[in-house]
Design a protein that fits this description.
The protein is mostly helical and 72 residues long. The chain has one domain. Helices cover 58% and strands 0% of the residues. α1 runs parallel beside α4 and α3 crosses α4. The longest helix has 18 residues. It is globular, with a radius of gyration of 11 Å. The relative contact order is 0.23.
Length: 72
């Protein structure tokens, strides 16, 4: 089952609160379908529309959310 853009943006807001936009716009390694040496922003992956890319960002956010023990 794939997740949509709106779900991921809401998850980012719920998980990261005021820091969501900063996190979404910070280049990161190891996101997306292919692991390359080029950093990619979570937002660019979401906006690409690629279901696997969107899911990879959602997976990271869900992991962050569960590691905090609570959602904001």
């Amino acid at each position: 089952m794939s997740v949509g853009k709106n779900y991921v943006y809401k998850l980012a807001q719920r998980t990261l609160g005021d820091h969501a936009d900063e996190w979404l716009d910070t280049p990161r390694l190891g996101l997306g379908e292919t692991l390359t040496a080029t950093p990619t922003t979570p937002r660019s992956l979401i906006e690409s529309g690629c279901p696997a890319c969107i899911s990879s960002v959602a997976d990271v956010l869900e992991s962050l959310e569960s590691s905090t023990g609570e959602s904001r």
